[in-house]
Amino acid sequence: MAVDKRMRAIEGDITHCTVDAIVNAANGTLLGGSGVDGAIHRAAGRELLAECMTLGGCDTGEAKATKAYRLDARHIIHTVGPIWHGGGQGEARKLASCYRRCLETAVALGDRTIAFPAISTGAYGYPAAEAAMLAVSTVDACLRSYGPETIASVSFVCFDRRTFEMYESVLSNKR
Ligand code: APR
Q: What is the CA radius of gyration of the chain?
């Protein structure tokens, strides 16, 4: 079954993306961290942390939006991925929820282009290949409910070549 052509994989730094919504792989406090969370907070500037401090944290699988400040976007959508414990603790369901809730939040905000990092595949240890397959299939299913006038493009931004090649192969195998 061909996947929706609005999805693409790109290799690069998500803080350099020009899209309506940039997704952050945060932790439950929403008060910053390392990895993509650290990069987004550094690039967006200190005002981002000030707004995050008003949000009261975020549950795993949920999403909360803030302004984008110095990023070239309308919003940052913060989501908290599952920590990998071997796959037997609902990790796949929680990761799918991250992608679904971020898309729902973007649609609610009128954001038509969205960029995702590879949520949970860094510090949270989720195997990158499984995460890529889950991300693509979850987003593909969601895109059936959203026409191009609602969601125009979904970019999977990969920080390294290995992750990029995984997404490319998932997307091309399903084309
Ligand atoms: N642009 C795009 N992707 C990036 C960037 C960046 N600037 N920096 C890192 N990444 C990639 C990583 O290479 C990995 O593929 O984002 C993916 C997710 O890795 P992490 O950032 O470690 O996120 P995650 O695994 O979800 O762990 C979240 O780490 O930074 C803390 O506060 C965060 O506690 C939370 C945890």
A: 15
